[in-house]
Amino acid sequence: MDDKYDKKKLEELIDGLKRIAYIKPQEIPNIELYMDQVTTFMDQHLEDTKRFSEDKILTKTMINNYTKNNLLPSPQKKKYSKDHMYLLIFIYYLKNILSITDIHSLLSPLTELCFGGKGEMGLEEIYEEIYRIEHDQSYSVAKDIARKAAAAEKTFPQVENEKEREYLRGFAYACMLSYDIYVKRQMLEKLIDHNFASKPEKETKEK
User: Fold this and answer.
1) Which of the chain's ends, N or C, has fewer CB atoms near its CB within 10 Å?
2) Euclidean distance between CA atoms 25 and 158, whole angstroms
3) pTM, whole model, 2 decimals?
4) What is the 3-state secondary structure (H, E, C) of the chain?
C-alpha cells in the first residue's frame, strides 16, 4: 500500500471511527430513569449512529419487547437502573448482527450472574472493560479497512471506461467488507452455539 495513501486513508478512517457514537462509562447516569428518560438519553448519545434522520434508536415498544423476550429484567417501580442501561446498550449493538435468540443466549448468563450487583464482577466493571478493549481496537480496525480500500483500488485495471472501473472497484470494496462481516458473523454464531447454548449454573455457596 502506498504510504501517502495509507496515511491519508487511515487518518480519515480513524476520524470516522471517533465519530461513531459509543456511550462512555462515565456518561451513564447514576440515578434510576423512567422509560421516557431512557429513550431520550439513548437518542441523544447514539444519534450519530443513525443512517437516516427518521431512524429510531430506542422506543418504548422496543424496551417492552426486550422485557417480554427476557432480554431485559423488568424495571422496579417503572424505573430503570444503570444495569438496565448497560444491557440496553449491549442489545442495541448486538441486534444489528444477531438474532433475538442469539442475543438471549449471549446475554442471559450475564444477566443471571451479574445483574443487580450479583456475581464477582458487576455490570459496570464489565461494561468498562468491554469499552476499553473496543476503544483499543479502533486503530487496527481502521488499518484493516484502509488495506481493503487500497486492495479494491487495484482491481479491474483492464477496464478502460473510468466510470465503469470506479463502479467495479467500489463494488469490490463492498464485497470485501461484506465478506469480512460474513466470516465474523459465522464465527460469532459458532461461539454462541458452543459456549452460550445453555445458562451456567450458579455455584452453591456454603453457609
Assistant:
1) C
2) 50
3) 0.83
4) CCHHHHHHHHHHHHHHHHHCCCCCHHHCCCCCEEHHHHHHHHHHHCHHHCCCCCCCCCCHHHHHHHHHCCCCCCCECCEECHHHHHHHHHHHHHCCCCCHHHHHHHHHHHHHHHHHHCCCCCHHHHHHHHHHHHHHCHHHHHHHHHHHHHHHHCCCCCCCCHHHHHHHHHHHHHHHHHHHHHHHHHHHHHHHHHHCCCCCCCCCCCC
Distance of alpha carbon 174 from alpha carbon 171, whole angstroms? 5
Q: What is the pLDDT of residues 1-48, one digit of tens each?
A: 444 445 666 666 666 665 565 788 899 999 999 999 999 999 999 988
**Residue whose entry in the numeric block shows the C-alpha cell 449471549:** 106
C-beta pairs of 170-179 under 8 Å, 24+ apart in sequence: 173/148, 173/149, 176/148, 176/151, 176/152, 177/145, 177/148
